[in-house]
Every structure is written in C-alpha cells, then in structure tokens.
Amino acid sequence: MTAATPVTEGIVRKEAPKHAELEGFGVRDNCLTVGGVPVTRLADRVGQTPFFAYDRRLMTARVESLRKALPKDVHLHYAMKANPMPAVVQHMARIVDGLDVASAGEMQVALDTGIDPLTISFAGPGKTPQELSCAVAAGIVINMESPYEMEVIARIAEKQGLRPHVAIRVNPDFELKTSGMKMGGGPKQFGVDAEQVPAMLKRLGELDLAFHGFHIFSGSQNLREEALEEAQEKTINLAIELARHAPTPPRMVNIGGGFGIPYFPGDKRLDIERVGANLERLMPRARQELEGAEIVVELGRYLVGEAGVYVARVVDRKESRGQVFLITDGGLHHQLSASGNFGQVIRKNYPVAIANKMDLPAVEEANIVGCLCTPLDRLGDKVPLPRGEVGDLVVVFQSGAYGRSSSPTAFLGHPEPAEILV
Amino acid sequence: MTAATPVTEGIVRKEAPKHAELEGFGVRDNCLTVGGVPVTRLADRVGQTPFFAYDRRLMTARVESLRKALPKDVHLHYAMKANPMPAVVQHMARIVDGLDVASAGEMQVALDTGIDPLTISFAGPGKTPQELSCAVAAGIVINMESPYEMEVIARIAEKQGLRPHVAIRVNPDFELKTSGMKMGGGPKQFGVDAEQVPAMLKRLGELDLAFHGFHIFSGSQNLREEALEEAQEKTINLAIELARHAPTPPRMVNIGGGFGIPYFPGDKRLDIERVGANLERLMPRARQELEGAEIVVELGRYLVGEAGVYVARVVDRKESRGQVFLITDGGLHHQLSASGNFGQVIRKNYPVAIANKMDLPAVEEANIVGCLCTPLDRLGDKVPLPRGEVGDLVVVFQSGAYGRSSSPTAFLGHPEPAEILV
C-alpha cells in the first residue's frame, strides 16, 4: 500500500518524489485497518474523532525485526518520550530490555510496568532536586548531565541513605552527521563534554555513588546508514577511552539510537540490516574492551512511529478560488509535527489518506486542514485523493511517535484527542 | 527598561538590532515587578516554577490607550484564543465590548463572564454539529465559514426552536500585506470567498436565521501601519459592497485587527495613533453606508501579549566548549513560540532577562535552554546577561498571548506551568 495513491495523469508531475511504501496496515472492504479492525469501526468504538490509533502488532514486529538485525547481546531500550501512552509503555516494557524516561512524570509510568528499576534510565538536562529525589528513591539509573547534578544527587543519596546507580551522559566530540536533530558535538546543553568526563569520573569515585556507565547520544531521526555507522564506531571508541578513567568498570554503555523513519516524499527507509551488520563488526572489540557492560541501543520513534495513525473526520468541504479544502475536526493541536510547525524549516506533507476510500483512485488535489483559526493548521497540501466528503475519515500516517504528547492540545479550547492501542 | 540590557564593549556588535523598549513592568530593589509585586515574591506565592504572570493593570492600560486612539464609536472585542485563562477573560470582559471565541470550549468560559451573548461571536473553519448546537442554544453570534455550515445551523435552529444570529466570515479578495499570518486573500480555509457571498446572502434570506453582519479578517501580527491602513480601507469598502446583497442591514461589521506587537530585535512598535487616525478618516463613510452597524475591531495578542511574562528557574549552569548554558526548569513545552518552533522559519530571541538581577550589567553571553531532551528547547541564544546562577529566575517577556495555551504542555511528562493574574 502506498500513501500517495496512484493519480491520474496530469494531476501530479511524474517526477515528484513519493512517500516510502508504508508497511503493516491492511485494507479491507475499501477501509484502512489498524490492528486488523477497520478505522470506521474504531471511530465508532472510540465514540469520537479525532483519535490516535496504535497497532501493538506492528510495534512487536518492529522489535522482532530489530532483534534479528542487531547483534544478539545488544540490549534494546524504549525511549518513552516518543509515545508515553501508559498502555503503549506497558506493551513495550514486555518486549524490550529497558525504558528511558525524560522526567519524573514519565518515570512513574515506567515504574508502573513493574520492570526492574535498574533497566530504567533517566536523562534530561534540567532535572530539579525534586525529580532527582524521586529518581534516587525509585532506584533507577540516573544519567547525569553535569558535575553540579552529580553533587546534588550525592547529597540526596546521603539524606535518603541510598547508593544510587549513576551514569554519565557524554556530549561527544563528534556529531551524528545529517541528523534530523543533533544532540551531540560542539557546545550543547546535553551531557558533559567528553573532555570533561575524566575529571568528573575522578570526583565520582570519591562520592558514595554506584557508577553504572555512559550514555552517549549524538542525534536522532537519521536515515543515512553511513552516518549512523560512523557515529556507532566513534561512540564505542569514546566509551572505551572514557572507561579507562572510571572508578569501576561500566555495567552499561548506552550508544543511543538515532534510527529515522520516512516521513516525507523522497525519504528512503533505513536499511536496518546494514546498520546491524556494522554493529556486529564493532561488537568483538566492545565485548573485549568493555567486558561486563551491556551495550544498549535506545530507540523511541523507530519503535513506535510507524505503528500509529491520527484519525480526524471531515466536517466541511470547501472550494476556494480553485482549490479544494477538506476541513477536519482535528489539526495541529493534536498533530503539530504533521502540520510542519514543530522545528521544520520547510513544510512537507506526511503521508495521508482517506481511510474509508482506500481503494478509490485519486481524482483531485485537496488541502487537508484542521479546525483551528490559524493558517498554520494544515495537515496536507495539495494531496492527490479520492473525492473527500463530509463524514469521511482522514488518516495521517507515521503518527505513532511525537504526536499527541508533543502537540498543544489546549490550543483554542477544543477537546483532547483520544488514544487507543489496538 | 530594555530587555537587551547595556552590554560591555566587545560582547555585542554595536550594529546588532535591539528589542523594542518594553513598557509597563517596573523594577524594585534589582527585581522585576509584575503588578507591582517582585517576581521573586510571586514565585514564592505561586509555590512553583515555571509560571506565567499577567498584569491586569497593563491590560487595562492597553485598552484605555486604544480607546483613546480609535474612533469613539468603534467597538473593541477580545479574541480570547490569545489568552484563555478564565481570570483573564473575566477581566477583559469587563473592559471591552465583546468576546470572540474559537471553540465551544472557549464559548463556555466566555459565557461564564455574564456578558450579553450577542456580544460573543464564534469563528472557526471546522465547527462540528455538536459545537454549532451549543452555540445556537447559547444565543451567541455565529460567524459562518461556509454555505454548508449555514444549512447545518438552520437545521439545528429548527430543531431547537430558536432563530440564531449569524454573520458571514468573508475571505476577502485581498490580503493584509507583510502580515505575520495571512488569514485572507487567495484560496483559504477561512470564511467564504467574497465573490461567493452574495449568493450565500440570498440563501440566508430564505432561511429562518437572523442576519447579524460580516467578519472580514485579513491577517494578524502586523507591525506596518500602511499595510493595516490599506486593509482597513479595503475591508470597509468590501463590507459596504456586500451589505447591498444582505437580506437586512448588517448590525455588526467585524473588521478584524491584526495589530502586532514587537517580539524580535529590530521590531518597531506599532504607531496606534496613526492607525486610529486612519480609521477615523474611514468612519464617516462607514457610518453613512453601514448605518446601524457596529464597527468592531477584534484583537487578541495586541491586548494581552505584552502584559505577561513567563518565569522559569535556573536549575543548572553549564559551560560547554566555550559557551555558557543556563538550564531552566521551563522550556518549549510551556512557551513554544519563544523557542522559535511554532511557525517561525528562523529562530530569533524574544526579549529575556534575569528577573532578580535587573540592575546588574551584562557580563557574558548565555544560552537559556529548557529542561527537555531536545535541541529545539531554547529560550534564548547568546543573550547578553549578568552572570546567571542556579536559583535565578529567568523571565521571557511578551508572553501574555499564545504562551501556555499554544504549547505542548504534556511533552516529556513535566508538570504544567502555573498561571496568575496579578
């Protein structure tokens, strides 16, 4: 199935880049299915639009394909900031080896899954004393972002009579090239500059803290295998180098992730076998030089991003000066990234479709917009589609990550979107 | 007081554009005050950071200065989407002539103020049947966005046994030039193309609806007087032209607003006297040709945007490869626009300061960032500031509009910001 459905000659230029093939969702009786259930039926089940629907089988399939591609002894963590819906986190906790949280709020959801606290790690540049106190009491691993934070943790630990497991988040001396978001290299608010880490490790040895390892994260949403391969190699080399300064051998080295998913026309799906093979090549040295350390790959978007859709209903159809507008009850207040307003410089379309007209050919180009009183509220610009009518269900694909939780749901006072895991 | 405090020679290039002078907030004993109360004391009163603090006296002063500048018989409406905090809406309802709402949720807050429902108008391109039903029952004015919506309203009205007041939102055949956001001109999801309005008015006359007038809105956040003047003239001319086709004379013509406020270095404050004088010049014709119609100016951001600050506490100070980072407990999840990620193409700094060090000279350039694990989370890039330390309170000015309500507060699971009206 392709999101850009075949179009009649002349409506779309033939050379226009296309969205990558979407995998996993089925079509039955002209209707898109999620978890095997038609989206029209899901809308009835939810009792409202708009909503997000996530497919647990696709999440499981993604984890399984990753396990096959990655070296057997690499641990897989889920960064729950990508999709913090409690049911999703519960599901992921059963199929991955650990969870990564970005706040005390996320930590509570992670702890509710019942997984071993030592497989939960907490990273974030501005942890408050209150949050650190929660984390110490919970017994999770704290990825420390600065020497100052380490001192705060040591004081809290003394007060609570606990010896917390701490890792150092390293701002590497390289960056993940051509990454959607650079998280390392150069001056950064994240982690401790690599060159400052030896001194911090020395001080760590003087404190009553259990050294757990390193978190080295150089970027995210990358679709270029060679950039990921280069970053993986540099990351492992840096961990080996830094481990020489550690008070005790690291028990964990989190090498980040950064695996991207295709969002826009022209984006090519990542060759995960190739990335896995590269890691396999690096592992013998890692096993030897970082003996006893778990090598962790941390992924958020890559695990859940393609497993979800956003569904909104068409509430008006308008033709304005030669253009068709399908006006939905959804919008950027639920799916900010798809509107092109969250960090993107140039707006491009996410893959979209009319869920209840999947087998119909495209006959027109339509703009899909939301219900907000702002011109920013666009979900699709000039998309080739079957004729859309009031009552139709528009789906935005690639909405399983950074959808609801990263959108301004209170904007203009509209109802919150529902979320279901099917 | 300037947000860009004087800096020592060499730190900032002399030719760099500056933020406009900020008006209204005072400084006492080295500390910024809001509503006459030091921000440090407000932080204690709120009991948490981050928070938004709005100054009711500044809102009142802004309305008074507008009343002075605008023709006496022009009505002033508050578009509550700019800041929907209930206490703010209650305050504004007492000092303006009407409220504009963008959803049924906002409508409920507006009705709670007790103002006459016929001074509340509801615009929005994707109103659901459910929302329209609420609006009809409430007896407010509905700004209709399409012929289809009009038919839905007529059916609801018949069912409820009511005769709702309806206005037509017009997509004009011109746009507000150099506007921050274009809301009219060309093909748009908003309103009814001007050239389609006569036919819609004819149909309106056949339905059991009370014709209320027109809503003609061409753009927002404009700082160029000549562009606003041109749009005002064209808007009034268009209303006069369209009124000729109306079944009954319009009782209201909402000419929009679009008055901008200075956010970025180099932005010049709007000359409101000049804009008011232009409207005075246009009013004699409007009074004659649109006799009996209230001319309404609808403003959101302009009324409240400069009356609020966002306050976050520094929780870490970090030096990374030659740059200073002040890491706060706030961020883009509360103040998305200030981070440069909401519709902006190029990130520029909002005016910022350290609230408890207002009288100290700038001695360094610092990056002010939030607590989120994303490089998008920046509140200030290389801002000349006094030396910032853990515990200091950072303020982001111009945060009275489109702050909390247009930000993804659930992102990464951090606590919601508080809001106070002082």
Helix-strand blueprint:
Two copies of one chain form a homodimer.
Chain A: E1 26-28, E2 31-34, E3 37-38, H1 39-46, E4 51-54, H2 56-69, E5 74-79, H3 86-95, E6 98-101, H4 104-111, E7 120-122, H5 129-138, E8 141-144, H6 147-160, E9 165-171, E10 181-182, E11 192-193, H7 197-206, E12 210-216, E13 219-220, H8 225-243, E14 252-254, H9 272-289, E15 294-299, H10 301-304, E16 308-320, E17 323-328, E18 352-354, E19 364-369, E20 378-385, E21 393-396, E22 418-421
Parallel strand pairs in A: 4-22, 5-6, 5-15, 6-7, 7-8, 8-9, 9-11, 9-12, 12-14, 14-15, 17-19
Antiparallel strand pairs in A: 1-2, 2-3, 4-16, 10-13, 16-17, 16-21, 18-21, 19-20
How would you portray this structure in words?
Chain A contains 10 helices and 22 strands. In chain A, strand 2 and strand 3 form a beta hairpin. In chain A, the strands form 4 sheets. In chain A, strands 4, 16, 17, 18, 19, 20, 21 and 22 form an 8-stranded mixed beta sheet that branches. An 8-stranded parallel barrel of chain A has the order 5-6-7-8-9-12-14-15, surrounded by 6 helices. The first copy, chain A, has 422 residues and is α/β, with parallel strands linked by helices. Chain A has 2 domains: 155 residues, Lyase, Ornithine Decarboxylase, Chain A, domain 1 (Beta Barrel); 216 residues, TIM Barrel (Alpha-Beta Barrel). Chain A starts with 25 loop residues before the first strand and ends with a strand. Chains A and B meet through helix 4, strand 10, strand 16 and strand 17 of A and helix 4, strand 10, strand 16 and strand 17 of B.
